[in-house]
Every structure is written in structure tokens, then in C-alpha cells.
Amino acid sequence: MKKVTYTIHILLLTLMIVAAGCSKKDNKFLDTKPETFYTVDNIFSTSAQIDQAVVAIYSQLRDLWANPNEENWIFVFRGNGTDMYDVPSIRRANTFNNYGTINANHGTFYNAFSTWYQIIAKANLAIYSAELPNISWSSPVEKAYAVAQARFFRAFAYRNLAELFGGVPIVTDITKVARYDYTRATRIETYQYAIDELLAIENDLPEVTATGGRLVRGAAQHNLCELYLAMGTQLAADGNGGAAQAAFTKSIEYGNKVINGGTYSLMKTRFGARKTEAKGNVYWDLFQENNVNYQDGNKECIWAIQIDYAAYRAEDTRSKLPYSRTYGPVFRNGAPAHLQGTAEDVGGRGISQINPTLYTRDSVYADKWSDDMRNTDIVFRRIILGNVSSSPYFGKPVPWSELYNNKDNQSLDYPISCKIATDKYTGVADGENMSNLFRDDYFIRLPETILLRAEAKQRSGDKAGAAADINLLRERANCTYKVTAADVDDKFNLILDERTRELVYEECRWNTLLRMGGTIAVDRIKKYAFWPEAGATLNTPYNLWPIPQLVIDANKDVKLDQNPGW
To answer: Which residues form a coiled coil (predicted)?
Structure first.
């Protein structure tokens, strides 16, 4: 496949390394008269090329979620440093819980900020180019869908920026010269911009597609549910209760469109490629190869990352989910007298870039919460058989009291989720070493929509409705304990706990915690962080990440205010 490399970098504020210009008078020998010169007005000549520009955004988002290059800042984006994840002892240098070293100069903030603006720049380029007079489209529908995808990505980027950083500069045009005068919109304005974008293209997205991975209407409606919820939460924090309630009503409305619209439904019976295997259950089925896409018969998949093993073997080395490697435990280091190797019996070739906190792996399932399909051994495997012949536990379950016999071991040894490992690794015959999964993965799954609607109901004062939504998931998971309105606490612990049980290794936890505002993020980090650094150093309350200091410094013509607490 031929690939076009675009050298038009239109990143907001973050590419402010400006070379000194050469004097034309003194440097005539540098003048050239190129036969061709690519600009934003002639770089595209066909509608297929514009579609490829859109595909480039899909590809970047796949890499952002799956993190095939194992970038530490992406592990933070996906949840390292929250209540759900920390780092093992062998990776303490990568901690995101030591607030003696976390400040506005931290590279994670810059990388996250600039990545979302890269996506905005690509979307702006595709939108602009779709209107060029030399582009021929097969039909108005083809053009509308191309533009709708690009506008969705732009809205998606601003939703993420607003949840993480608050109000940010809104850039909607191609930038052809360096600028140093950007101004921040408010968080409300940023949410509203993303809402307006999605409302404008909602009906240009198809209800379903023939193949997996492409955007559908449900993805826009899910994001509208989240955006109205986020905006209502901020409006309430600002003291605008009436507007907040109107936003929560809209959030519920868009949640209803997805949940009750007839396209999507929770999978409640066995399905897919391995449904006849007695050892599985329906939740396990959701995470098996060839089961993830809506087109595979999975009615709760709204939008999925596409992973292609053939493409990986041929040329696309990033077409993989390195989850067994990056998220997997390291029993061979934590309990070498009892467990060795890198095969299926120990969850593959794990190196534990981040690990689940004790809250995520254990306490969220304590007591009455333990009887839960999501806590069964096929889904969250806790029975690990000793495989060292000299061990007294050879061929028998190694007790967790043995695995947890010191803090270091406790950080390396933990249950194995079916979302990050499998008993049937693709590619072993080709020399693959059980580091990677080659299945598709979820960007959006219906249970998250249900939990967003539950939160909107709670914030509207309908705790019984929130409990009923949570029970939709608990009933599917065959939980003995069903929640009631009395369980719906004002600190949103119930919803956050249920998100942990349902969406571990799926949601971007920082977005969730920071979107909720108040002291929720700080309180939960201090309570559940695996290592003591957070408790000792997290002394400043905050509910937004800082605007990267490099961005503030580069925007020399207009002062960008820093977020409180930084």
C-alpha cells in the first residue's frame, strides 16, 4: 500500500519551534522554482484521498487506545495514577502518583494536549478539503458521511480536551501561519461546541455499517449523552441549576436513543465463535476473537477499534493489542518459586506496565459484591496453578496469601482479566510470543451509555432511576445483590464502582474522574493509590489537568490562564 506523508503541521500552540528566516535579498541562491508545490488547496485530488485522511484519524485513535508503542503518557491517559491503576515495584520511575514531581511541565499533559489538537488539525484539513471544487463525489451521501466522520472526530477531541483540561482554544479552520494569540473558551463553551458539531452530523452517520470500525449514529448519540452530562455537571458547579437540569434531561434523552432505540441491546445469552464451550459465559464471550463487532452479532458494540492480524504480519506492526504484555502480571518475578514462564497459564508474556490497584482487583468485589459474573474465574482469573515442579503447589492453586506475601509481589501478581489475556493466542505458529491479542476492541460499548444515563438520572434527582439502570448491568452479570436508591450515594461511589466492575481496561478513568468535578478525583486517588506517594504528596485539590506550561509560554501574544491548583 502506498502511503502519502503529509508535512502540513497545524498543531495548536504546540509546534512553536520557529526557525530564523533567511533574507531573500542575501540568499537568492536559496530561491527555487518548484514544478509542483503542495498546499492545502491542491494536495487532494480525489474523494478517496480525503477518505484516507479520515482513516488516518481512525489509525491515530487506535494507537491512542491500544498503545502499541507502550508510551508511558498513554498509560496515564488510559488510567495510570487514578483509583483504578498504579505501577508495579519494577516501574516506580513511571509512577503518576508522586505529586512532588507532577506539575504543568510534566510531559504527559503536553502529549495529551497536543495529540488531541493533532486530531483536530487532521479533521479540519479533511473538512476543508471536502469542499474543494476539484473533488468529485459519487453522491451527496458519500460526501456527507466523509464530512460527518471528520466533524465527529473534531467534536470527540474537544470533548476529551474539555473533560481533562477544561476550556481550551477552539480552532475550526486551517491554520497557514504561526499564531501566538489563541484564547481559551470556557469549559461550557467547549462542551457546547462539541455538542453543536455532533447535532449537526448526527443524521449523516448511518445507523449501522456493513463492516466494523466505521462511525455510526449511536457513537454520536453516546457522546451527546456524555457531553450533556458533563456540561450539566459544570453548570451545576457554576451555580446555574436550571440550565444544569435542562442539560441532564438532554443527556437522558440521548442515552434513551442509544439504549431504547432498537439497534443496541445487552448480550444476555452465549454468542459468537466460542459460545458452545462450557467454560465460558456471556461476559467472557464479549472479549473473544471475532466477537467484538456489531457485525459479529454483538449488539452492545457501538464503535470498535479494528485489529487485523494479516495486516500486522504484512506491514502494519501497530495492528495489535499488546495487552497481555503491557497489562499482564509478572508471576515469574513475584512468585518464581511457584510460577514461571510466559504462556497461557500465567496470562501470557506480561511485563506489567501498569497494574490494577487493590481496589480494582479485590475490594470492589468484597462482601455482598462478590457474587458477580464479572468476578468469576473465567472472566477475572484468580486460580493460578503452580507450574514449578519443586513447589508444594505444583498443579494446585497458589494461595493469594503466598502471592501477596510482600508489597513488591503484591504489585506484580494479580488476577488475570479476560480482556487482557486469552487461552488461545493467535500467531503462536508464526513465532508470536503471547504478548499480543489480535482481536478488535471497544471504543464504545452499550454498558457505558447505560452508566452515563444512570449518572444523569442521579444528578437529576432520580436515584431510583439510577439504581434501575445500574441493575440492568447487574442483572446481566447474574449478581445476587441488586442496588436500590439507598445505595446511590452523593459522592457517586456506587456509579464509579460499577464502572470499575463493568469497564475495567476499557474506560479512560481520568476523563471520568475529572469530569465529575469537586474533590472526587483527589479523594479517590488518595484513598486507593497502590503506593504511598499520593497520600504523602497530593495536598492540593484539583479537578482539571493543567494547561501545559509549554503551551502557555508559546502563546506569547495572549495570556492563557492556568487551571486552579497548578
So the answer is: none
